[in-house]
Amino acid sequence: MNGPVSKQVAQPLPQRASLFSRPAWTGIAACAIVLALLPLLNLVFPSGSALHVSDYTVSVVGKFMCYAMAAMALDLVWGYTGILSLGHGVFFALGGYALGMYLMRAIGHDGVYQSDLPDFMVFLNWKAYPWYWWMTQHFWYALLLMVLAPGLLAFVFGYFAFRSRIRGVYFSIITQAMTYAFMLLFFRNETGFGGNNGFTDFKRIVGYDITSSATRTALYLATLAALFGSLLLCRWIVTSRLGRVLQAVRDSESRLMFIGYNPLWFKLFVWVLSAVLCGIAGALYVPQVGIINPSEMSPANSIEIVIWAAVGGRGTLLGPIIGAFTVNGLKSWFTGAFPNLWLFALGALFVLVTLFMPQGIMGLIRKLQKKRETP
Amino acid sequence: MSNIPHVAPGRSAYEAGEAAYGRIKPQGVDTAHGAILYLEDVTVSFDGFKALNNLNLDISVGELRCIIGPNGAGKTTMMDVITGKTRPTSGSAYFGQSIDLTKMTEYAIAHAGIGRKFQRPTVFEQHTVFENLELAMKHDKRVRPTLFSRLTSEQEGRIADILRLIRLHGSERRLAGLLSHGQKQWLEIGMLLMQEPQLLLLDEPVAGMSDAETARTAELLNELRGQHSIVVVEHDMGFVADIAQGEKVTVLHEGSVLAHGTMEQLQADERVIEVYLGR
User: Fold this and answer.
1) How far is A312 from chain B (nearest CA, A)?
2) B182 reaches A (C-beta below 8 A)
3) CATH code for position B172
4) Touching check for B130 and chain A: CB below 8 Å?
5) Mind telling me how many Å the CA of B232 is from chain A's nearest CA?
6) Interface residue A139 vs chain B (CB under 8 A)
7) Nearest Cα residue in chain A from B5
């Protein structure tokens, strides 16, 4: 009975003091400042100056931040709660479509057919907006919809799946099927979302020209704010008692039930939250890349989100962000240098990370830290 | 967003106007008739095989009851029925006078005041010892309160008490996964105690323990005697003799009760010797 008793009696109990440790805060703040400076460098310095950051770089980083947000949202359910979703792309796309509907209506009469309706509806010979386009001309409604659409889908899907105690690989397969089904649905022209072309040729957002550099900077900064806001929110959640309950769901759901928690609501809470964050990321993505189409719902896209989280390190929040930047950075370079090899490289990356870095980049960082502490 | 159906507490002992005199006063559970658990004609059949066969059992408030029986006698199935994991094919299971366990979910039963230790120690291995106890602590276990709750100093004190009781004070910051097998068993018992249950179900609490650990566990259960009603399912005869201390022991055989009695009576009972104790 004399187990190895460590001499830590006087240690303070695990109360919540700060969301991050001091070095982590410093690193995060530094990254935030650098990211915030990029578009300013783009605006202030003329192209040709050594300090100039190209439009391309800014738009790519803006895109990566949306991916990072999606990866972090996924890790909240995968790394922390043990629910592997292979269908998070559908939430990302739904958020994107929600804002896309507004952007389509903001085109006004500047489309090819100069009609009240978006071009694709004219093409289908529709005379009026279908009912689900109701109110979408209002920006605030689009913001509401970008939260409600993915949130509601996640709630309904999650409620039935979790209540039936579907877990593990079965759950993952169903999520994959869900995103595939939605992709097929959105591919149909009659669904009313532009078929396989989706939405594109946006002209303006809340009255501002969507291609102007000021608007692009504003969208970029909004994305940065959303990314860091959601990082803080997620961190706050995972360091709360609820966060510990989520990890308990992952490690031993039945024990949790027998000490009086109903896992259903905890899973549903984190699942819906994750979907909403993913939807917001998608909504920020669409005006920056200028297009949303059903290929965002293809199963491969959802699997890519999983790979970002795995490469960065699951069960952490910073990991998926780092992973999203790393993998997408590699992808940008690879598709430029060896366009045909990217999928092989992605597959190899996933295998190598799984075999040699099961904790991802964050695990590697932690290992190095430990080595430095104990030389 | 959550709306966990809370267990209707039924008539409490107070409302019933006959606060159990001289006994522990359980809240929410009506134990006016002195019994905390009734199993009546419980049958569980799996594809025709009867894991429990018209089992009748009742446990009094404050009792420490040991249940023994050979493998396959239905001990674990009985615990599954009490904790809502398995629904009986027929028969009834009541907690106190009014709480029908056969209609409740696992977490609702835990809320009502039944704590269960599994045969294999199950603790949250990635959490510290402290966090394990904190999670198990009796509090509002719905989503929103869990998100906003902070530990009060009173609750910290309670955790510290339990840590001392299960001999893990000083290890509260260790990951539970790093504990020895025996320590995990104690931690799990500690987690049950944090729930402040009226009824504790312990499935083979000393399986895989060293002799010293077994003796310590017997000591622990003796400390808990009278504070909770306790049901212990165990194979280890020496351990059962240590904790039964003249109280009633039940022998299960093929899904029903073979015999009741003190350890001495059972050791002299021909049928018990035949099916279980051997010669």
Assistant:
1) 20
2) yes
3) 3.40.50.300
4) yes
5) 17
6) no
7) A262
Give the pLDDT confidence of A8-23 residue by residue, as tens digits. 444 444 455 678 888 8
B242 touches chain A (CB under 8 A): no
CB-nearest to B130 from A5, A9, A13 is A13
Residue B27 is assigned to a structural domain of this protein: no
- Position A336 scores a pLDDT of 87
ipTM: 0.86
A354 lies in a domain?
A: no
CB atoms within 10 A of CB B186: 27
**A40 domain-assigned:** no
Please state the domain count of chain B. 1
pTM of the model: 0.89
Closest B-chain CA to A245: B135
Residues 69-98 of chain A whose Cβ lies under 8 A from any Cβ of chain B: none
Number of structural domains (chain A) is 1
